[in-house]
């Protein structure tokens, strides 16, 4: 199902440059750190950033064991788009392209496809026995001669196609109150926590200009780093920064004193309507109870005392 690629065929994976970052992080040695370079320059490095900022174009999995290239068969999954294999120990990165990229953070991200992708990646990682702490930012460059690269028959899959190979997927869907602690689920959980905190926390920064914006951005990043520490395997600092900055920018632009007051008024109106419904239902329950008690021979005084209402009210209920 897979074939070993020549150098030219390896570069073919980069033919659709829209699926790659224009200036990705890259490195020949992860221990020495990452650098931002043009895509052409990054292609000469052993490690490269695969997904553009804020997008999931490729689902990446780090499989740290000999024979990792065959893990997809053992897991009963469709063939990956490519697998880059360490020639020394057989460990590999297996990658599935997504036909429709998924926005992974920012207030424009759609919740349903993001959580759907989270569940798919979580179950695939479990089935592949992949590293649960792998963030998917940097991968073995499939065009680099250091790795042996195998190419599958498909460039990309729809999420629903991948889901067909994954029975029991619903159990892996991240919940708002019990988010996944691995993979993309951490991004979802962190984004949710920071944005819900930010809606109210921004109020002291309204109308404070550039100085206030810098302080607000710093506050969002500090809060995101604090929440990130709660994960069993925290996200990298750059991912945390992107999430914090996204939330900070949206709330700074769209959350104002006037807008917050309007929201409070709408929320109060909704609460008042709901409270009114509750009170009316309670009154109706008492009215029915009063009529049943009267039918059983209880006096108006007794009914009023037991239900905690006036005698004239009971008298009216009974007459009605």
UniProtKB/TrEMBL annotation:
Gene3D superfamilies: 1.10.340.50, Homeodomain-like. InterPro entries: Homeodomain-like_sf, Plasmid_replicase_bac. Coiled coil: none annotated. Pfam families: HTH_23, Replicase. It comes from the Bacteria. This is Helix-turn-helix domain-containing protein. It comes from Azohydromonas caseinilytica.
């Amino acid at each position: 199902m897979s074939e070993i690629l020549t150098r030219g065929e390896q570069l073919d994976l980069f033919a659709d440059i829209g699926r790659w970052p224009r200036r990705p992080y890259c490195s020949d040695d992860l221990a020495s750190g990452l650098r931002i370079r043009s895509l052409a320059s990054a292609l000469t490095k052993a490690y490269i950033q695969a997904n553009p900022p804020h997008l999931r174009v490729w689902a990446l999995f780090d499989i740290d064991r000999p024979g990792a290239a065959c893990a997809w068969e053992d897991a009963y999954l469709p063939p990956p788009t490519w697998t880059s294999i360490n020639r020394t120990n057989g460990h590999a990165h297996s990658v599935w392209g997504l036909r429709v990229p998924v926005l992974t953070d920012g207030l424009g991200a759609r919740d349903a496809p993001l959580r759907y992708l989270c569940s798919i990646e979580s179950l695939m990682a479990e089935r592949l026995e992949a590293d649960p702490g792998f963030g998917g930012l940097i991968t073995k460059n499939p065009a680099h001669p250091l790795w042996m690269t195998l190419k599958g028959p498909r460039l990309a899959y729809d999420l629903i196609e991948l889901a067909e190979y994954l029975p029991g997927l619903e159990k892996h869907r991240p919940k708002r109150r019990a988010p996944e602690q691995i993979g993309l689920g951490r991004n979802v959980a962190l984004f949710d926590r920071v944005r819900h905190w930010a809606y109210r926390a921004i109020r002291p920064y309204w109308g404070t200009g550039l100085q206030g914006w810098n302080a607000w951005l710093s506050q969002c990043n500090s809060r995101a780093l604090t929440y990130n520490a709660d994960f069993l395997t925290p996200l990298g600092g750059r991912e945390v920064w992107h999430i914090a900055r996204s939330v900070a920018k949206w709330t700074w632009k769209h959350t104002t004193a006037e807008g917050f007051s309007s929201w409070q008024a709408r929320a109060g109106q909704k609460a008042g309507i709901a409270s009114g419904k509750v009170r009316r239902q309670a009154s109706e329950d008492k009215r029915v109870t009063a009529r049943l008690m009267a039918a059983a021979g209880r006096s108006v005084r007794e009914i009023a005392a037991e239900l905690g209402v006036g005698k004239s009210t009971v008298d009216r209920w009974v007459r009605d």
